């Protein structure tokens, strides 16, 4: 699966569990870690965990590999390493605190509107 298809899959999986404020950054030109970062918010620990689990399930069902999942037990910030796409699932307060969008401000935004239900 190419990185753009993987990006779409992760966004759709997050949206399926009502993730909020989904942002995708094209970090290919500013980082060697991945092609895309997906950053999103949830209201509670349980929702953060549900979104994280759903992203992992969607990726595995599509036949792709999840390299690692960090932070699932705490449920404040889950990092899912899908190789070319890294997903950050935050509780709202943690997202504001870490402000990854500002940290990676040199990376252009990717329009994900066509993959989310309004």
From TrEMBL:
UniProt KW Translocase keyword: no
Keyword annotations: Cytoplasm, Repressor, Translation regulation
Presence of the UniProt keyword Repressor in the record: yes
Location in or out of the cell: Cytoplasm
Coiled-coil stretches: none
Subunit text: Interacts with ribosomal protein uL14 (rplN).
PANTHER family, per database record: IOJAP SUPERFAMILY ORTHOLOG, MITOCHONDRIAL ASSEMBLY OF RIBOSOMAL LARGE SUBUNIT PROTEIN 1
HAMAP family: Iojap_RsfS (MF_01477)
UniProt similarity note: Belongs to the Iojap/RsfS family.
Record function comment: Functions as a ribosomal silencing factor. Interacts with ribosomal protein uL14 (rplN), blocking formation of intersubunit bridge B8. Prevents association of the 30S and 50S ribosomal subunits and the formation of functional ribosomes, thus repressing translation.
Protein name: Ribosomal silencing factor RsfS
Organism: Lactiplantibacillus daowaiensis
Lineage start: Bacteria, Bacillati, Bacillota, Bacilli, Lactobacillales
């Amino acid at each position: 699966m190419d990185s753009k298809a993987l990006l779409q899959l992760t966004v759709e999986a997050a949206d399926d569990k009502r993730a909020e404020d989904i942002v995708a950054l094209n970090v290919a030109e500013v980082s060697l870690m991945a092609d895309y970062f997906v950053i999103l918010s949830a209201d509670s620990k349980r929702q953060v965990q549900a979104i994280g689990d759903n992203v992992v399930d969607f990726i595995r069902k599509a036949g792709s590999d999840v390299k690692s999942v960090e932070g699932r037990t705490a449920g404040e910030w889950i990092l899912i390493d899908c190789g070319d796409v890294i997903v950050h699932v935050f509780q709202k307060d943690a997202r504001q605190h870490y402000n990854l969008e500002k940290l990676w401000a040199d990376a252009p935004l990717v329009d994900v509107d066509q993959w989310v239900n309004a």
